[in-house]
Structures are given as C-alpha cells and as structure tokens.
Amino acid sequence: MRRRLHALDPVLCLIGLIGVLWAAAAVAAATPLASPPEGPVTLDYAKSHHLQQEALTKARVASGLAKALALKTPNQGLYDVTHYDLDLTLAPTNRLLTGLVAITATVTGPSLATLDLDLKANMDVSGCTAAGAPVTFARALDLLTVTLDRTYATGETVVVEVAYSGNPAGESFGWDRYGGQPLIWTLSEPYGAREWWPCKDLNDDKADSVDVRVTVPDNLIVASNGLLVSDVDLGSTRAFHWRHRYPIATYLVSLTAHPFARFSHWYEPLAGGEPMEIAYFVVPDHLVSAQTGYLPTAAMIRVFAEGWGEYPFVDEKYGHAHFLWGGGMEHQTCTSLYYGAYTARLIAHELSHQWWGDMVTCADFQHIWLNEGFATWAEAYWLEKSVDMAAYHAEMNAAAYFGGGTIFVEDPTDFTAIFNYSLSYLKASWVVHMLRGVLGDEDFYAVLHAWRAQYEYGSATTEQLRDLCETISGKELDAFFQQWIYGQYYPSYEYSWWFAPEEGATRVNLRVRQTQTNTGLFTMPVQVFVDTDLGTVVHVVENSQAEQLYSFTVPGAATGLALDRDRWVLCTTAIAQVTGIPDGVPARQARLDPIYPNPFNPSAWLPYELPRAGRTNLAVYDAAGRLVRTLVAADLPAGEGRQRWDGRDEAGRPAPSGLYFARLSYEGGHWTRTLTLAR
C-alpha cells in the first residue's frame, strides 16, 4: 500500500550505476594473508556475537508476538472463517450504512458456544441470528460477542448473521464528493474492516471467498473484489453484486462508488485461453488521461507473471478504481488509485501486491516488510525488465535508507511503525535486493516460486521465508536475517589494497575494516571489482570481522580496485590508502576523512590531510561518474584542511537528493568517500 503521495514519494535522485552483475565470474577464492604487512590485525568478531544477537531477537519477537496476540481474543482462535456475505445499503446524503453480514465458519476448537467478531462500537447492532434463529449478543468496546443457538463441536459449520447500521466515517471509510457527486471508498489496512462490517479482522484467517452486495443511489456505480454477478436497476436505487472466489484477508475487501466512467484492457494468460479483463473505474473527467496512463498495466502483469508465476486471480480480473486518497491501496483484484496518479512506479507497486501481500499475506503486521518491501523492490524489477539493469540499480539506489530503526514492527498496534516509509518500504526493499544478491538469481527466483507454492492464498512470517531461503540455497542465513530484519543501520567499510605483480597476473592484497560504531558487525558477501589491462574482474569476499585481510590472484596487470561498485550491500565505503604500491609497504599518504554530516542537507564538510605540499584536486561526482562540482584544484600546503560543499553544481543549481562520491586526487593517488544528499 502507498498512502498519501506527499508521504510516500519524496524527491529521490535516480542514480545510474552500470556494472557487472552479482553473478559475474570471479577468480579463485580469497585466502587470508598469512602475515599482515602492517602489524597485527585485531579479529574481535566472535561466534558468540550472533548467538547473543539471536537470543535478544527471540526475546523481542516473543514480546512483539504477545502484542499481536492481544489483538486476537481466545474465542477467535476456536473458529476458521470460510465465507463472508456482505449485503450493504449506502445512503450518502445521510452518511448511513445499513448492513446484513453473514459469517460462515468452521469450528476448530474443541467446542464453540459464542462467536467473537470485531466491529467498531459506533456501529449499532439491531439483531443477530445463528443457524437462522434469533440469538442474544453483547458489546464490549469494539468487540461483538454473539451467543450461538447451541454449542458446536469440532468440524461443525456455524452460520451467524449480524444486522447493523451507522456512519462508519473515518480513516477506513470515506463519504467524499468529486465533481459534485458522491465518491464513497474503503481502505481498511491494517485493522479498518471492523469500522464498516463485522468480521474476524486478522490476517491469519482468510475467508475462502466473499460476496459483496451493495445498494446505492441509481446514478452510482460500485466496484469491488472479484467478478460482477449482477447490476440491477431498482428505480431510485441500483444493486450491485460482486463475488470473489479466492481466499482473502479482511483488509483487502473493498468497495468504491461513484458515477464512474468505465473501460477495459485485456491480459492474455501465460497458458493461453480466454483473456482476463483489466477493468477500470475512473472519474469521468480523467477518462482520457486514465486510458493513456494505465496502458502499461497489461504489460506489467505479463512481466510479473513470467517472473513470479501467473497472476494469482487470473480466473477473475484485475482492475483500478479511483478514490481520493493520495497514492494507492492494493485491494484484491481491484486496486484503489488516486485519480491523478498514473506513474509506472505506483502502478507496478500496487499490482505486485497481488502476488506479495494479497496472494501471500504477512501473517500479522509485525511482518509488513514482506508486503511492502517486495512491492517497493518490484518497482525496480519492472524497470529492469522494461528498460535495463542500470535502471534497476538506479531505482534501488534511490531507495537506499541509511537511518536507524528495524523493519520488524515490534508493536503491531503502532500504525506509524507499520507504515514507516523509510523502514517498511525503502529499507525493506533493500533487504529483498540484498537477499537476491546473497542467493544469486537462480536461487532467489526459485525462492519466490516456492514461497508462492507453499503459502499461496495464505499468510506467512519472516522466519518462514528465512527457512525457505536456507532450504533452497543450502546457505546459513540466520546472520543475514538477524542483522537486516531485527537489527539497525548498516556496515561502513574502509578498505585498502596493494598489488604484487606476478607472471601474467597480479596478486591482490586487500584489507577491509568495518568502522561503524552505532551497531554490531555484519556478515555479508561483498563484491570486489579489480580493474586490469584485460578488463574488470569481479571477486566476492566473505566479510564478517572488524578487520580482515584477503589475498587472491587476477589475470593481467591490475590498475585499480573498488568495493561493492554495483551496490548490492546497503553500506558506505571509503578508501583508506593510496593504490598501486608495488612493494606492499604503505607510505605516509594523503587522507580523505569521514564527511560530516552524512547524510546532509544543505551542506557538508569534506576534511582531508596532506603529508606535504602538492597539487590537489577535490571534487564531487554523481554515482554515474559525472562531475558535479570541483571544490579544490590548486597547490595546497601540508597539513589538515577541509572544504565545504553546499549541495550545488558548478552552475549554482541545487543538486538532487541521492548518493554522491567525493574524490581527493594527490600525487597520483585517489581517495573516495560516499555522501548522501537528502533534501
């Protein structure tokens, strides 16, 4: 889901990075140096680190689970909903909803004598039935408890009807107007279904199917989940009946009503057969722009289907319905979209939710990253398939988040935490991206297909995804999930190297230090790019310690080296020494020190040190390697100094938000540090 546009579409720079993919061929595995040339190396990483972290994580998960379970009554654990039948009458003039909802459920506990349902206290209940007979009920805040006609045993079917009415106006139900006409909409994520109909409002119990019947004034058209069964003119009113025959979470049940203009596109299923309708319900004055803006939808469905398996609800439809919230909401088979939003990014995000969020739903909102992380990553995936890999990397780099906080939502009652854009969307998309890098494309896409096969039309947790990744890849991934899901921040790598020529080859000696101080050590595979006279070699090192040394051989004469050039790790990198020292003995060198503040807005200081007077160049480049601003090009004295970058280019124009590189050049050596401009 994307809520309001101003909250979810900050100005982000599309950063162009063109490089070799993670799966590029590497040379022989790196081996630690037998004896460090610069004295002893502190290896302060211990196995107990992950064990301690795991224990802390388990305690936090347990605490969070307790909060999640508090949203569910013990009684709701005794039955499984199989069907909802909503029969609603909407009177927009009076803002009155009158409804009769039938709930069909199977008893899963040893016995069931009452049925707990979620329904906001402001909705008045006029009566309840069980098996067609009137029964008593009780209200306690937002809980409706229906006394059944008898005690039901395990496996028996219970049918309860609730008659109710009221004004459900709020965050989840809107009585808006557009163009002088009513525009009624619902948006129930995370727990808003209970605001407008009685239900078991929890993700871990999807109904097998739902019928949505809505009677409205005769000038309105109703869009909802599934297929339209009937549209009956009753004179002054009009009755619509929509039927959805796939499992569905309560927050994904929806309706919108307005004098919509309608049109359709068509999707050809992968296996052939009858085309599936893509149905559009748009405000009339946006008909022309919508017909153009929504054109990519069918192509997107095909691209996603080819990558992840067929569209999950191909026997029914996909669609867009306009509403007045900025952004969109991935209602199952009928996404709600802001009437002025026609960006490919938004369309791709909400469409991908039909797979990741709707078909496979996070078991509870502690694991919301499974929905939003994959959907945000899918925006980049669409660019990869429709443009190229450089566009994919540009989109991912635009989504990089370097702040604190965990993407695991410890308190599922905290809506701000659930929909934290920086964490649940941006950082979560990087977790998906990094998981792709760690697993490699073959295993990564195998995981997506297995994720679908195992949890299709159900719900799942982070731990279940981890277990599946480990099973398919054969890799131990506990550290990855501990540090990126439950941990905070990111690694900062400082690296240096020296080359030793060999016959027809070069021995690369690489030192990597983790310098972050706000969190623990990270265990990650990191790409090393070695430029040679024969081309670029990509080598992968496994890094897990505060300081590690690697030695490996590349063919040809090495001319340069860079760490994580393609950015498959959410990290910062800095060069610690001048390159190309033939004898492996580092001399006293110039230095480009950490930039501060970083990230920055509007300006940052770039400190440096020169061992002696000399010609010095200090400049800022964008991630595509284009010069943005020259800060120094002069003979400077020895000693410490600093230069300020005000975030503007050579012409004095404000540079866009995004990742940049500061480069210090002195006596043939180069030092580089990353910095992030966040406007």
Outline the structure in words.
It is a single chain. Residues 3-62 and 578-588 have low confidence and may be disordered. With 679 residues, the protein is α+β, with helices and mostly antiparallel strands. It is built from 12 helices and 36 strands. Helix content is 21%, strand content 38%.
Largest beta-sheet details: 8 strands, mixed
Task: Report the top-level CATH class of the domain at 83-102 and 166-352.
Answer: Alpha Beta
Proper CATH architecture of the domain at 83-102 and 166-352: 2-Layer Sandwich
The total strand number stands at 36
Sheet-strand content, in percent, reads: 35-45%
- Average pLDDT over all residues: 88
What sort of overall outline do the alpha carbons produce when their principal axes are compared?
Answer: elongated
Intertermini distance: 24 Å
Q: Please tell me how large the radius of gyration is.
A: 29 Å
Which fold does the CATH topology of the domain at 83-102 and 166-352 refer to? Zincin-like
Indicate the low-confidence ranges by residue numbers. 3-62, 578-588
Percent range of helical residues: 10-25%
Strand order of the largest sheet: 5-4-8-2-1-11-14-13
Q: Report the total helices.
A: 12
Provide the structure class.
Answer: alpha+beta
